[in-house]
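# step 3/5: fold
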Amino acid sequence: MKNKKMKIARIEKDLSQEQLADLAGVTRQTISMIEAGKFNPSLQLCVSICKVLGKTLNDLFWEEEESEQ
C-alpha cells in the first residue's frame, strides 16, 4: 500500500526525497520505496521520519480500514 500521507507531509514541508532521507539518516531510495509501498520501515525509522516531518506515527503510518456499508 502506497504511503500517500508521508509523501504529502514531505511535500508540505517542501522537502525532496533526498532531503528527507538525509535528515532521517537513510538513502533516497529508502524514502522512495516507503512512499511506493515497497518497503516496510522499522519502528525506529518511522519515528525518525515523523520527527523530521513534525507528525505522529498515527498521522503517517496508521492504516484506517474502510467501513463496509
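# step 4/5: annotate
The chain has one domain: 4-59.
# step 5/5: archive (pending)
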